[in-house]
Amino acid sequence: MAAEYDTTRRKTKARYRCYPNLSIRQIGTVLQIAVLYAVLIGATSEEIGGEWHDKYLGHGTTHEQLGQLHYPYADLTPYKSKVQYTIEQKRNTWSVTPAYNISQFLFDKTITDKPSLPAGYLGIKNGDTLTMGPKVEQNDWSALLAQYALVIVWVILLLILIILVPFLAVCYCCFCCCRRCKRGCGPCDSAKDKRMSFICAAILLLLLLLILLGAIVAFASNRVLDRGLNEASDSVKRGSQDTCRYLEDINANLNHLFVYNYEELEAHLAELLNNAHNHIFLDLADTSESNAIEQLERIFDNMNEAKTLMRQVDGMEKELRFYTTQLRDGVRGAKRDVNYACGSLVTHDKCKDFLKNSEMEFVDTSTCLHMDNLPNTTNFVLGTDKIINDDIAMIPKLALRRFQEVGAKIEAAMALVIPSILKDVQDGREQFRMNADRISNQTEALISNIQLKTVRSTRSFDDVYEKFGNDRSIMNSLVCGCLFVIIFIMLIALMCGCCGRKGSGATCLLIGIILIFTMFSFIALVGLFYFIMGLVTYQGACAPVRDLDENAIFKQLDANIDLYEVLDPAYEMSAESAELRMSTAIKACRANESIFDLLLQHKLYELDDLRNIEVIKEKTDEDKKENIFDEDLSSVYLLTQEERDKLEAARNGDFSEFNSILYLRSMCQGLTPNLATLATGLRKIRDSITYNDKWEEYNKYARVSLSNEAYHLDTYNYEWTDKILGIMSAMKQKLSRVDDLVLYERRNFSNSIKVLVDAVIRSEEFIKTRGSEFINVLSQNLTDVVSEQIEMYKEGLITECSSNVGRCAPLAHVYYRGVDLVCYRLVDPMNGFWIGLLPAALLLLPLLYVAHKLMCLWRRLHSYAVPLAVPETGPSCPTCTGQPFVPPPTIICGGGQQAYCPCREDAKRKDGGATFNDSSSIATSEQNVNVETTSPSVVHPQIQIQIPDEYQKEALTQGQTPEAAVAAVFKPKND
After folding, report:
1. 744 vs 740: CA distance, rounded Å
2. Where do the structural domains in the chain lie, given as residue ranges?
3. What is the band of 601 on the pLDDT scale with cuts at 50, 70, 90?
4. Which residues contact 324 (CB under 8 A, 6 or more apart)?
5. How confident is the model at residue 418 (pLDDT cuts 50, 70, 90)?
6. ∠ CA(403), CA(406), CA(407), 5° rounding?
7. In the predicted model, what is the mean pLDDT of residues 838-864?
8. In the structure, how many helices (H) and strands (E) does the chain have?
9. How far is 892 from 895, CA to CA, in rounded Å?
């Protein structure tokens, strides 16, 4: 431990021997910091200082330090489009839109081959119009049907039904199928037949509703088709109008950008160039601090007004001194009298407490009452008189006149340069106008070409409408009318049958069945025709719109735009850029791109041509070496020595120390404590002095003295305090005005003149040594600014053209309106027609069966409801006739046995009804009954019925046999 301690100690001593003591080291640190600070401050000062000014960067002008541009940019007016495109009337197609969607779904799912249609079914006319092909004219559908199995199955099924249904109708009518209805037993089959009639009626109603829906869809589609054909010319006309408006808007936009905005730029540059000498002159004054001459002129020109104000201040100062002295002496006397009254006349504790606690003892000690430090305004007035009499105001005027001579030299030098620049700017106007005309011609030719081909495309399938258009609407209306008539008759039948008139209902059903047999083939044939035509036209006009790239038909229809008509004859065009198709143009417009994008992609116009427009001609190297301003300013002076001496004398005159601060620091608001409060306190003390016989004489004097001093304080406060404060306020206003007139940066007059004169001297030195160089730099900067602003105009023009000019969504809208004319107004309604018609026609077939079944049921139910005619003397069946029960006649059965049942007991009834043991049951259906005429009774092989005499007589009278009379009694009545 000892050895280690010694080592540490030796190291510690060595440290102290290597470094000086602590105080010396601290001094060294301070010196290092000082040197480093000086170096940093020096470097910062050099960085802050600019090339032309010790404190400011750039050219040293004030507007540069405020962040303003040396030469302002042109404020160009943006283009606002006011074009109003036609508004397409929105048609309500909600009733047929589902049919359109169904037809499109069916075609898209079944027609999947590429190409979708075999050759010969569609043709291209003039390269831009679809027509029906020769196979359609020849009615040759074999190739189309052979390509799609589902289509041929569907067509064959329809053809079989169309051919077969008329044969079924002939058989139905010739074999009296309508009369061949199975007979039934009322008691046995009535309940079951009623149930079946209700079920069949419900099914019939459901089928009628479905058929009605199809008929409505077909009728509405036919109306839409008629409306589309009628509005075709109006839609094309509106598309042409929108195209014209679009072209007018593009031309107006181009004219605004290339002509109107350039005229604004030209006017801005002309103003900038014509006032360039003033701008350079003012910048020279700003950088060289020659603006100090203007400040000197301001000060000395305002000296007369300052003199007038100072005279007014002089009078106010005297009044202020007088009134403050009066107030100070008055309150001082009041304090003395109060002290005497409280200290000598009375020994009242409240009086002493008042002196101790109130501000009465300090009422005259405020510094605001002492105007000893107020300057003598009379000396300032004499100083202004001397300045005015010495005509010092002419010195800055002469200096300004000399400085303006420099401005005249600048104007003369710029007059040699400005005209050539202005001429270049004016010549540039024509160049931009020519470019605007060129672009307008190209866009107009391009858009007109697109519009022409769009109009031609809208004429697709005109041959279809010309061929079938005259009879189409009549036939469609007739088909829909047939469906509505069938539906109407069937509904009438339902109403009659459900309301109890089943015979009439059955008759109406029979009429409806005959109409269905008559009209089915016609309706189905029309629907099949529209199916085939809709298939072909849909694949030709509608499907390509959604599949532009892959549809072979549209590739044939996708017309080339003749770019040789768009471009100038002298313009050279490559082979790949010459291929511009409608689909390409519409794709670009569908994305709402600018028409310039289309021009650029196909090299119809190069925006670099705008950049290559040379407005300001580039100077040669020799011209660049020449200075615009070559005047010698070394002999320029602003102030002569004599003038400097006069300014120095004026600076050191009687007015030299003037500054309003000399007055303001002596004028304050707190003149005295609140005198009204002190007066109130004195009156309270006076009232507190009580009567004392021994000291009554002294107390009386004390009360009088306190009352007088309270009155005096109120008088001083009223007469002098407000008046003194008013004088101070008026003096402050006038002194502030004098400061604004004759001081610079709130310095006193002497310092203001010194600062300004020094600035003028520095300005004079700057003009002599660096004035010409500074003027040349600003002049060259001016030409650069003109070129820069023109280049900025070009770039802004390119940006505006490529982004905002000619947004071609309206053009695409015109195109799709043409597609809408062909597809959504003409082709889709055709498909909607067969979508409604064919299902309705097919539903007529189950309707036939249901109607026939219901007709038979109603006939049977109608026969059940007819009462049976039975002999009055014979037996009666209450169940069958509804008559009161009558005992049955005596029946002689075979074998000599008697019984009440006319039927065999071993017979089985499967349909319910009366039991075999019920003696009141009588068959109501036609039966084979053998009647013998040899006896008055009817003999059956097994039973014998006694015939009343009345029926035998009636039968003989009418020429009938008794057997026929019996048969007539038991036979049911039909319609």
Report:
1. 8
2. 2-48, 867-975
3. low
4. 368, 369, 370, 371, 671, 724
5. confident
6. 95
7. 85
8. 38, 5
9. 9
